[in-house]
Amino acid sequence: MASQTQGIQQLLAAEKRAAEKVSEARKRKARRLKQAKEEAQDEIEKYRKERERQFREFEAKHMGSKEGVAAKIEVETKQRIDDMNRAIASQKGPVINDVLDLVYDIKPEIHRNYRA
């Protein structure tokens, strides 16, 4: 009977050691997964930063800097405004004369809907 009890005790101890090993293996697996996830996040962040850097280089190469684009737009806008002001100045007199001619040229007539 003692050997049977001793055998059961050995089985229980072995089962306990096996459960501890399985638990430790699960913990190691969870740590490895967490570490792999962190490494993947770091790698993704590095890739994203590299692509952003490449995009900024491409943008600067093909479009110029934002300040350069803003300055170019400002110059074009001023040029257009100056062109419009010159066109207004050159056409102002004739347009005023045409409007005044239309105002002064009154032709009295009876409205077509009037019935006498």
TrEMBL record:
Annotated Gene3D superfamilies: 1.20.5.2950
Native organism taxonomy: Eukaryota, Metazoa, Ecdysozoa, Arthropoda, Hexapoda
Annotated InterPro entries: V-ATPase_G (IPR005124)
Molecular-function GO term, any one: ATP hydrolysis activity
Species for this entry: Zophobas morio
Name of the protein: V-type proton ATPase subunit G
Basic and acidic residues: compositionally biased ranges: 35-45
Family per similarity comment: Belongs to the V-ATPase G subunit family.
One of the record's GO cellular component terms: presynapse
Spans annotated as Disordered: 23-45
Pfam families the record matches: V-ATPase_G
Protein function: Subunit of the V1 complex of vacuolar(H+)-ATPase (V-ATPase), a multisubunit enzyme composed of a peripheral complex (V1) that hydrolyzes ATP and a membrane integral complex (V0) that translocates protons. V-ATPase is responsible for acidifying and maintaining the pH of intracellular compartments and in some cell types, is targeted to the plasma membrane, where it is responsible for acidifying the extracellular environment.
Ion transport keyword on record: yes
